[in-house]
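2024-03-11 09:14:02 DEBUG pipeline.ingest accepted 1 chain
2024-03-11 09:14:02 DEBUG pipeline.ingest length=189
2024-03-11 09:14:03 DEBUG pipeline.predict start
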Amino acid sequence: MVNSSDERYQMVDQAICDAVFLFAKTKDPMTVTVAEICKKVGIVRSTFYNHYQDLPSLIQAVQQQSIDEIRDMLVHFRPKGNREICQQFYSSLCNYIADNGLLQQLLKWPEESSAFFEAVMEMFHEYVMQGTKTVLTERSAWAVSYSIGGAVGILHKWTRSSHPQEPDVIADMLTELFLKGPMAMLLEK
């Protein structure tokens, strides 16, 4: 029986995930093979299979890791119409995307990543619900959906065009659009 709380197990697990992030910077992660990952990490196939059932389960775990890291960013983001707080969140998000090859691939081809984006949207909705401590009105729920969809659209365009603008330029745009649109609707009574 494998002890997943063992420090060595966790180190190998993270190395496997890191390999996917690394490969994703240069190729579609679904085309990476178990053999390539094993070679990159310096493990044998049986060690890989002690951690993951197959490549799709690894990709799913890495996607969940990305969602968890974005959720951690949100913990510090409590919008109150404050431009600096919004700017900080969007800047963190854009820099995270610029460094995360897997997330870039997912954003480039969102039609092939619908389960991932559904999970991200659910995470953002939960965040808004917890942050407001109230039930969203139908109008504010639409504003949240609009904000998420719009941000994903901008990030999609940015990643598909290989980041011609610096992350802070995109963060400025996302901040401005959020504060002038969805935030105004969220603050309405």
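2024-03-11 09:14:41 DEBUG pipeline.report The radius of gyration is 18 Å.
2024-03-11 09:14:41 DEBUG pipeline.predict end
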